[in-house]
Design a protein that fits this description.
disordered N terminus
Length: 275
């Protein structure tokens, strides 16, 4: 009986640690949903669900690569974790600013181009690849937060909790994304079942939701990218703590992400022009 209660105690402790890890990753997951939904909404309606499934498989593969790698690094090479985070943050900030630049300065040029059917398959593959790349960066952040949440646990417990939280995150994020981009179909289903007002509201919300997600997704990239720099660079963290009220931390993160993204964007543009 004593052995039974010892096992029960271990299970309870494991459940508590898992709940803590899920809670700590909640914020990054909300950003992940916004970013992924915004990118996934760029596909043709008939291809949205198949594309999300392809991205979901890519996300699972990302986790399979990231989890053992970061667990090994945390044990044998902990000093490399922060540089990896900063590289990921730089990529997210750059991608966010690239979207801003595209919206304000390349919109007319893009609208003048006519879509060609033969390029649709290539474009879809490129978009899937880009979304999976973004997921890779966000997945690193999710895994690291989950890992730090159970830093005092034994290695075996870390493996179980981090793996569970990471894969649960993938299922949750892409399940919610699938619901968001298929709001119109859900609305039509409600209308057919006799709930016309609910159905019409969902269909009407679809267009707004996609546009809103485009904005939220871009802001999320700046927030995550800037937040990683603010929390891992001492002097930036000191400035944030010293001069920002806790309610304005989020604006500091966003501004930092915009500045980093803008610098990287113009550096890359400069080198491209001077090749």
């Amino acid at each position: 009986m004593t052995g039974f209660f010892a096992i029960l105690k271990q299970v309870s402790a494991l459940a508590d640690d898992t709940a803590t890890a899920i809670k700590n990753t909640a914020n990054i997951l909300s950003d992940d949903i916004a970013v992924t939904a915004e990118q996934s909404s760029n596909f043709k309606a008939s291809r949205e669900l198949p594309v999300i499934w392809e991205i979901t498989k890519g996300s699972f593969l990302n986790k399979i690569i990231i989890i053992p790698t970061l667990l090994l690094f945390s044990v044998y090479l902990p000093g490399i974790i922060v540089p990896i985070l900063l590289l990921g943050a730089t990529y997210l900030s750059y991608e966010g600013y690239e979207k801003v630049n595209e919206f304000f300065f390349e919109k007319e040029e893009d609208s003048a181009k006519e879509p060609h059917a033969e390029h649709e398959s290539t474009t879809e593959k490129e978009n899937i690849k880009q979304t999976i790349q973004t997921d890779f960066i966000l997945s690193i952040e999710v895994v690291l937060i989950a890992l730090y949440s159970v830093a005092d646990s034994h290695l075996f417990e870390k493996i179980i909790i981090v793996t569970f939280v990471s894969f649960l995150a993938t299922i949750g994020v892409y399940g919610i994304v699938a619901l968001i981009i298929r709001l119109d179909d859900i609305g039509m289903w409600f209308a057919k079942k006799g709930y016309k007002r609910v159905g019409q509201a969902l269909v009407a919300t679809m267009g707004f939701s996609v546009k809103a997600l485009a904005v939220i997704g871009t802001i999320a990239m700046f927030l995550v990218g800037g937040g990683i720099f603010a929390h891992n660079i001492d002097f930036l963290h000191h400035i944030q703590r010293e001069y920002c009220n806790e309610h304005f931390f989020i604006f500091f993160d966003a501004l930092l992400g915009i500045i980093i993204g803008m610098i990287v964007f113009f550096l890359i543009s400069f080198f491209k022009k001077n090749k």
